[in-house]
Amino acid sequence: MKQISIVISVYNEEEALEQFYQEAKPVFDALSWDYELIFVNDGSTDRSGRILDEFTKRDNKARAVHFSRNFGHEAAMTAGLDYSSGDGIVCMDADLQHPPQCVAKIIEKFEEGYEVISMVRTRNQSAGLVKNITSAAFYRLINTISDVKLEPNASDFFALTANAAAVLKSSYREKVRFLRGYVQNIGFRYTTLEYEASPRVAGESKYSIRKLLRFSVNTILCFSDLPLKLGIYSGILVGFLGLLVMLETVYEWAVKGTPNGYATIVVLLCFMFAMLFIVVGIIGEYISILFTELKDRPIYIVGRTENFGSGSDKRVFDTER
Ligand code: UDP
Ligand code: MG
């Protein structure tokens, strides 16, 4: 019998976990494949860790990977992939926004021979208008300026066969990460499935506007080098404007005898310095990412694991494999 690994990222989800388990467990029990539940505890500071240990004690299909501290959702999903041993792997959230019922459809797709499945939101009940508009703008921008094509409304709900996941286990070990972007660009037989995101069952979203903005900027920088070339384009633009101003100055001098200098100089200086600082700032952003990648610090650090089989549970620190 084939097995599916279901990876669930958990960060301070004490209010949602029990409900997730109660609701999802019977759904998973009815699947045509065997399954394992890999909960990745991303350094929760509430009771989530203890709740997960309880799951692992009463349920031999539940496993837990406890990080040494919070490393972020991307790191949590990555660890889940690394620790999975199924023939197929699904990543999902712990707040029931990703309906467990979809896993049956994912298995059907696997059986039809698809290797990579992106789950696409048709409606996000909990996202406000602003989040929907900014998200659409983000995807439009990234699809315009980068070589990769990203599915708008794709989510951190996706599935891969072990074969496709092997690519992400050995490569794409970037520190500034965008896993769903990699998932959509490794090739293989690819398809999408639609789902309706329900509202979060309990607790609050862990993504603040600031975090989302940072994340979007980094993703654009990591998937495109167009911003880096902005320097050349603005140089050409400023050079061209300078030429026009020069012609105008010569004209004033020829017609009126006195060129009107001061205002022009102030405007031009402001304009040029603004351009310059923006370009320098963009280069700074890329250097910051380069620096992070160069330091090569681990994507995550595992404090301990539970229920991965006798002997394989790690009690000592295990940096990213
Ligand atoms: N999450 C995580 N680490 C973090 C932040 C979030 O593992 O640093 C988990 C969180 O517990 C949830 C999932 O990632 O299961 C998605 O987070 P959330 O629901 O807060 O994001 P949203 O659905 O609002 O985009
Ligand atoms: Mg959520």
Give an overview of the whole structure.
- It is a single chain.
- By secondary structure, this protein is of the alpha/beta class.
- It has two domains: 3-224 and 297-320, Spore Coat Polysaccharide Biosynthesis Protein SpsA, Chain A (Alpha-Beta Complex), CATH 3.90.550.10; 226-295.
- Helices cover 50% and strands 19% of the residues.
- It has ten helices and nine strands.
- It has a nine-stranded mixed β-sheet, sandwiched between helices.
- Helix 1 (14-29) links the parallel strand 1 (3-10) and strand 2.
- Helix 5 packs parallel to helix 8 (209-223) and helix 9 packs antiparallel against helix 10.
- The protein is elongated.
- The two termini are 28 Å apart.
- 29% of the residues are buried.
- The mean pLDDT is 89.
- The protein binds uridine-5'-diphosphate and magnesium ion (MG).
- The site of uridine-5'-diphosphate has 17 residues, from strand 1 and helix 3.
What's the gist of this structure?
The protein has 321 residues and is of the alpha/beta class. The protein contains ten helices and nine strands.
List the helices and strands and how they pair.
Layout lengths: L2 E8 L3 H16 L4 E8 L6 H11 L3 E6 L5 H11 L4 E6 L8 H10 L4 E9 L4 H17 L8 E8 H9 L8 H5 L6 E8 L11 H15 L2 H31 L5 H34 L5 E6 L11 E2 L2
Parallel strand pairs: 1-2, 1-4, 2-3, 5-7
Antiparallel strand pairs: 3-8, 4-6, 5-6, 8-9
Helix pairs in contact: 1-2, 5-8, 9-10
